[in-house]
Amino acid sequence: MSDLYLYILVMSVVTYLVRMLPLVLMRREIHNRFIRSFLYYVPYACLAAMTVPAIFFATDHLISAALGFACALFLAYKEQSLIRVALGACIVVFLAERVLVFVGML
Amino acid sequence: MNTFRKGIAGGIPIALGYFAVSFSFGILAVKGGIHPLTAALISLTNVTSAGQFAGLTIILASGSLWEMALTQFIINLRYSLMSLSISQKLDAKLPLWHRFLMAFGMTDEIFGISAVQKNPLAPSFMYGAMAVAIPGWVLGTLVGGLAGSVLPAFLLSALGVALYGMFIAIIIPPAKADPAVLAVVLLSMGLSCLFYFLPLLKQVSSGFVIIIVTVVVAGLMAWLKPVEEEPSDV
Questions:
Q1: Which is nearest to B192 in space by CA: A20, A47, A9, A105?
Q2: Which of B80, B24, B31 is CA-nearest to residue B52?
Q3: B122: helix, strand or coil
Q4: What residues in A contact B188, CB-CB < 8 Å?
Q5: I want to staple B71 with a disulfide (CB 3.0 to 4.6 A). Which of A29, B2, B201, B207 is the partner?
Q6: What are the domain boundaries of chain A?
Q7: Which residue has the higher pLDDT, B41 or B90?
């Protein structure tokens, strides 16, 4: 399993460099508008791509996952905190799966 | 209140949120056959939700180290923008070692509370936030990893959406305020689905799907809808 530690090493070194280099090297502001725009959109593109479609397969049933997703969208739209959105989605999945078990679909 | 204690105060709600989310990371890692302590080590050395989540996917799929490096680089590229923004808020005479240390705690949330502090930003504010948020992140992973194996399956299923819930909480409010961000979110979700369902595209590993979708969509929107000149005080 030494491979595992190699993965962790690569992961953490790259992650640290990405955080550290701009802070240490770049003392001036980036003026290239395209690069600034690209960097501005990156987190949203990446998080959205990671969430869909993966969230639909993260639970025991597609229906409970879809309801959890809908709940998270609603709470996030209402600008609730990270923890409330995350836990709200979990609770909805939990409740939905109790119902699915009850009606014999799970 | 000194800046370190102010940082701690700001870091407490972050630590609670981190605990819940890293709890599910610990569960996922252990489910994939990784020891809880190793999962905690990943959290301690990376302190990044999206990056660790994608990294775990690559580890479990036995992806290449290049794929790992490239994925971490692309997914965490946003931290460069944050570091850049914070670098504009620092005292020019600040000793270099502070920049090395602060960089370690540059997460979405710690950046968020630091970016709204008055200029110049005191490094001790970030250290205060890091002092509570990072232990929250690592402990959550450890507890999740340990409890994950004894928790009943129906609870694990419910907790499976926690991380995605957090991602949604990060992307939706800005998407509400900015139509361009909304377009980015919808395009990325759509493109990511294409990779999941279409034959041929389906064979691309999930780490690369994230890279490709991110670069294509962020690049396209940066070209179509470049951001306005930023205000001088960010």
A1: A47
A2: B24
A3: coil
A4: 44-46, 48-49, 52
A5: B207
A6: 2-102
A7: B41
- In 3D space, the residue among B106, B216, B112 whose CA is nearest the CA of residue A41 turns out to be B216
Write phi, then psi, for B103 (nearest 5 degrees).
-60, -35
* d(C-alpha A41, C-alpha B225), whole Å: 10
Contact A86 B162 (CB under 8 A): yes
What letters, b where the CB count within 10 A reaches 16 and e where it falls short, cover B118-137?
eeebbbbbbbbbbbbbbebb
What is the rounded distance in angstroms from the CA atom of residue B171 to the CA atom of residue B161? 15
Indicate yes or no: CB of A50 within 8 angstroms of CB of B54: yes
Per DSSP, A79 falls in state T
In the predicted structure, residue B201 carries a pLDDT above the cut 90: no
To which residue do tokens 């780490």 refer? B207
Q: What is the pLDDT of residue B228?
A: 79
Q: Is the distance from CB of B141 to CB of B26 less than 8 angstroms? A: yes
Phi-psi label, residue B2: left if phi above 0, alpha if psi -120 to 50, beta otherwise: beta
Going from N- to C-terminal start, the domains of chain B cover 3-160, 178-234
Q: What is the pLDDT of residues B167-178, one digit of tens each?
A: 898 889 999 999
Type of residue found at A57:
F
Angle between helices B206-224 and B65-75 (to 10 degrees): 30
- Using the predicted structure, report yes or no on whether residue A1 has a pLDDT greater than 60: no
Distance CA A48, CA B48 (A): 16
Range of lowest pLDDT (A60-69, A88-97, B46-55, B188-197): B46-55
Q: Say yes or no: ipTM exceeds 0.95.
A: no
Find out whether A80 and B17 touch, Cβ atoms under 8 Å. no
Q: What is the pLDDT of residues B82-137, one digit of tens each?
A: 788 788 788 888 899 999 999 999 988 888 788 778 889 999 999 999 999 999 99
DSSP letter, residue A30: -
**Residue B197: CB atoms within 10 Å:** 10
Report the C-alpha gap between B184 and B215 in whole angstroms. Answer: 11
d(CA A7, nearest CA chain B) in Å:
6
